[in-house]
Amino acid sequence: MSKKKVFDDPAQQLFKPRGRILFFKYFVLLFFVVLGVRFWYLQVVDHEHYVKAAENNRIREIPIPAPRGTILDREGKILVDSTPTYSMMLYLEDMTNAEDTLNILVSRFGLDRNTILKMINAPGAKTRPLVIKTNAAFSDRAWIEGHEFEHPELKIELQPQRRYPLGEVLAHVVGYVGEIGEEQLREPAYDYCRPGDIIGQAGIEQSYNKILMGKEGYRRVLVDSRGRVLQQLEEIPPIPGQDIITAIDLDIQMIAEEKLSATGFYGTAVINDPRDGGILALVSHPSYDPNLFAAGIKATDFNRLVNHPKRPLRNRAIQDRYPPGSTWKILMAVAGLEEKTVTDKQILPCGGGISTGDRFVHCYGSHGGPDMRRAIEISCDGYFYREGIKLGIENLEKWQALLGTGIKTGIDLPNETKGIVPSRQWKRKEYPKDPKWKEADMVYASIGQSGVSTTPLQIMFAITGIGNGGKYYTPHVFKEAKATEESPAIVYQPKVRDAGFSQDTWKVVSEGMWRVVNGSGTGRRAAIADFDVCGKSGTAQVVGIQSGATGEQKEHAWFVGYAPKDAPEIGGVVLVEHAGHGGVESAPIIKACFEEYLRKKKGLPKEELAQDATNKQPNTSILNAATNNTVSSVIVSVQKTKPASTVTKPNLSNQNSKPTINKPAKPAKPNTTKPLVKPLVKPLVKPLALLPQNNRGEKNKPQIVPTQANLGGGR
Amino acid sequence: MAGIILKETLRWRDFDGLLLLAALSLVTLGTIEIYSSSPSTGAIYKDFWVKQLIALLIGLVAFTVVVFVDYRKIYNFIPYIYGGSLLLLVAVLIFGHEVKGQRNWINFGPMSLQPSEIAKIAVILTLAKYLSPLRKGNLPWKDVLVACAITALPMGLIMLQPDTGSALTFIPVLALLLFMSGFNLKLIIIAAVTAIIVTPAAYFQVLKPHVLKPYQIMRIEAVINPELFEQVDFRREYGYQTFQSLIAVGSGGLTGTGVTKGTQSRLGFLPEHHTDFIASVLAEEMGFVGSISVLLLYLFIIMRSIGIAERARDRFGMLVILGFAGLVFFHVIINIGMVIGLLPIIGITLPLMSYGGSSVLSMMILIGLVINVNLRRFAN
To answer: Alpha-carbon distance B340 to B343, whole Å?
Structure first.
């Protein structure tokens, strides 16, 4: 094809496929219109949407956690605080290759793949970076900081972590923290929370979460496409949570912890101030270490705690019900006097028991014919069988509620359980085969069996309320939330209710309880000189078990009391599981706590109360000795202080024989003055592992008709 | 009458200044956005925008040369041009400078050449030359096969680099030139109708369940269903680049954020912002006004070229210009379609605007050819 032929043949050269060219033109035009319309939609119609998307792209909000308020005892001693720890964070927005990141987390940092996947898919992941590892080791931090460029999605941040310096002590009161659950997020009570928030999940941490939590702040930063921070735009500082002062008195708490541990049994003790309802101490054994939760509890640890037969997570004082045993007789007495079914001088025979229905129900002894005061003092079952029959179930039902059992006390700790007090209706419901309320049922109910079942806190609430002349102060742990720059102080206002019984009734019953401790009663081990301790012991049947049994089968030992008699300042309850007699095992614990209270009230140093109560052992306080250099001058100084001191009575001969007197002398009674520094956790660990499974059952369902042998065994 | 016309060989009033102006405007806009989106390297001669301007200068020199040489004289050199470009394509496979696993460039000192851009000119010229004689009736199958072979040879070499995006651009040029050279219209209509019917069926019945990989399906479906982009996971895995481009375009609004104010490109969210995604940068910083202006400039260049093709004095000139128009059209549709999320991501540049000296050079040569043909439409 030569050039000439191609370009000079007009027929060929002038031919133009005009139709096809026109088609091509429209084809081009059509496509350009499509592009133009698309630009219109993207840039004009949906503009706002993409502006937001661009913002999200380049602006990150990095949360600054609010410091959670500390929890203090009434004297300002730290019960719970927070400590900064290095946390490994995962920023999902900056994760370009999920598989790659996951592999690093699993192989390099030893994290569990499924756990991370779960976290990534949790609702919390949408609002904030994930804390994938707490307490990151130095090597972890170094690696992440060294790979900032390759893995901008991984960062190390200082995050406050909850610290429970007391460990297992007070665990049930302070509770623990954890990430908010999906169900919790839907509850109106948590409407101020966002997914991923760390909230209180038990105890004070839960009850006063809103006060403690504060409000998260954030930093708005400009990032590039790799998530590297280019510039900080603004910083909204967090609003710290408020510190909470509790009613707890750590000194009394420690005494109670130690004494309860020393029994070798599990159980619970609560000490309160009847004048305003403040809880001074609350022990529940076995306990757990809330620090496990603070770092994000491992599934194995959690399952171990939840599935443990002794259920250490439960606060026995408010969540578990026990038959109150003889402590219940106090309520029976008040109800009887108020309903005038009995008078204080009226003598009811003990008779060694009572014959009802087709059987004879024993008293543990034979007490002749006591009046009410005497019956309380010696805890005569026979008297109260008859008193109960006179009272009747309807009156009991009425008074148990007035006296604070069978209802929730309203303590400011979560998950309080209601007590059970039997009624005709209750019997129908619980025992459909034997639905009628019989005299025998009433007999058992009169001594705190037969379905009567209360939490230890309710018994304390009831008895200290009675001791207080019917003034029932709602128990509370919270005392005050300290003011911060943003939030005013919150001070607890005591709530009081009057049970409405007469002064005469109070007199009779409180005299009875005084005699329990100070007379020939069962609570003599709780007596403190010049402090008029009143109280009542109880030895509660473990369901369906013979009295005098041992180990798991043994009765629960109750003691509830308050002091002084005429104007109670302190009250308390102790329940030791399977320990036998309340007067033996539980009363000394109450005594020790009350003594600690007295010691502090009088402003004495730790060891001195023992001497005060037990006729003054030789003692030289460290305060005296510390300022002197020589032994002789110490003696002089001690001699000099002798007339001024109202408490210490130095024994000179003893000092002369022992020159090392700047060490305080060991008091005689070892059980009241064991050193407090000894870790209380230790004794708990072993029995927790060794004891066989509890067969008490979940509901603690009482047996309505015990055998004869198991009630009147004491005769 | 005819004699008078034939004497007027070259009329300077037929020099299409507007076409050149449109092209220069696009290069200018492109250079501004290259400047805006790429951080300065410190040494000015290394900055992308400076390199682009240098390429433009070289392109203008080439343009001038092309305008002054009668295109009919070039006609005889076409086999050499074609052969030379094939040699370059082979050379690049051997001596090429490897970037990200591709050998697309041959380095000449400070400059580098992308032979596939030169091959585009060569293929257009060769096809135009081969197809320009008018056949009787429909284009014979033999000629169709030869035309395909002419295209397939450089295409295959480019695929070896591998640079699939560039290779793909040859197909629409070939198709358009076959269409304009009398390819059986009935066949075309039948093929078109079949495609419209069969494509969705094939996609849903065969491709989607059996052939395509999940990520390919996701990418295709993201075009039909843009809401998929709202899912974070999807974005992260399959559509990150498209999504970032959409954000850039959409956040531009009516008038844009202003030059050097676009965060999407400057903070690195947009991938390949000075090459494949230069249109996103422009859309973000100049807004709808800018995007539409660019579309109109391209439309003008294509329509103007088609007009010149219609008035060309011979079929060779017409086919060269239509080849150019088809090439630009295909590039613009694919590139902008990708930028605004209508098409999946393919590495195809926006001619005249994307950074790339060889591309600017070849475009200026092609525009020179268009103006050349227009200048000599009454020539002997």
So the answer is: 8
Spatial distance between the Cα atoms of A446 and A450, rounded to a whole number of angstroms:
8
Map out the domains of chain B as residue ranges. 11-375
Report which of B147, B154, B149, B155 is spatially closest to residue B177, judged by C-alpha positions. Answer: B147
Q: In what helix (H) or strand (E) does residue B129 lie, and over which residues does it extend?
A: helix B115-131
Q: Do B267 and A47 touch (CB under 8 A)?
A: no
Under 8 Å between Cβ of B88 and B108: no
Peptide bond into A564 cis (omega under 30): yes
DSSP for residue A69? P
The amino acid at A578: H
In this structure, of A460-464, B33-37, B149-153, the range with the lowest mean pLDDT score is: B33-37
For residue B253, which residues of chain A lie inside 8 Å, CB to CB? 43-44, 47, 51
Contact residues on chain B for A98, CB-CB shorter than 8 A:
236-237
- How many A-B residue pairs are in contact by the CB < 8 A criterion? 145
A24 close to B (CB below 8 A): yes
The Cα A388–Cα A342 span in angstroms is 10
* Gap from A114 CA to chain B (nearest CA, Å): 18
Catalytic: which of A82, A87, A287, A326? A326
CA atoms within a 13 Å half-sphere pointing along the CA-CB vector of A140: 22
End-to-end CA distance of chain A: 136
Q: Which residue of A42, A50, A60 is the best one to mutate when testing the B interface, meaning the one whose CB has the most B CBs within 10 A? A: A42
- Please give the CATH number for the structural domain made up of A273-480+490-604+697-711: 3.40.710.10
The rounded distance, in Å, linking the Cα atoms of A294 and A312 is 17
What whole-number distance in Å separates Cα of residue A134 and Cα of residue B126? 69
**How many CA within 13 A on the CB side of residue A194?**
11
**Contact call for residues A388 and A332 (beta carbons, < 8 A):** yes
Cβ–Cβ < 8 Å for B245, B9: no
B326 pLDDT tier (thresholds 50, 70, 90) = very high
Spatial distance between the Cα atoms of A380 and A520, rounded to a whole number of angstroms:
13
What is the structure's pLDDT at A191? Answer: 87
What CA–CA distance (Å, rounded) separates B373 from B305?
A: 10
A434: left (phi over 0), alpha (psi -120 to 50) or beta: beta
Is the sign of the CA dihedral B249, B253, B255, B257 positive or negative? negative
Q: What are the tens digits of pLDDT across the range A495-554? A: 999 988 899 999 999 999 999 999 888 888 999 988 999 999 998 876 544 444 455 667
From the DSSP assignment, how many helices (H) and strands (E) are in chain B? 16, 3
> Which residue pairs, CB below 8 angstroms and at least 24 apart, start in B67-72?
B67/B15, B67/B368, B67/B371, B67/B372, B67/B375, B69/B372, B70/B372, B70/B376, B70/B379, B71/B316, B71/B317, B71/B320, B71/B369, B71/B372, B71/B373, B71/B376, B72/A3, B72/A7, B72/B314, B72/B316, B72/B376
Does residue A617 carry a pLDDT above 80? no
CB nearest B315 (choices: A15, A25, A54): A15
CATH 3.90.1310.10, applies to A60-246: yes
From B232, B316, B342, residue closest to A38, measured CB to CB? B342
Q: What is the pLDDT of residues A230-267, one digit of tens each?
A: 778 888 888 889 999 999 999 999 999 999 999 889 99
Please list every residue in chain B whose beta carbon sits closer than 8 Å to the beta carbon of residue A226: 268
Domain boundaries defined on chain A? 60-246, 273-480+490-604+697-711, 618-666
B54 to chain A, minimum CA–CA distance in Å?
Answer: 31
Residue B367 has pLDDT above 60, yes or no: yes
* SS3 state of residue A551: helix
pLDDT digits (tens, 9 = 90+) for A360-388: 888 888 888 899 999 999 999 999 999 99
β-strands A490-491, A478-481 pairing = antiparallel
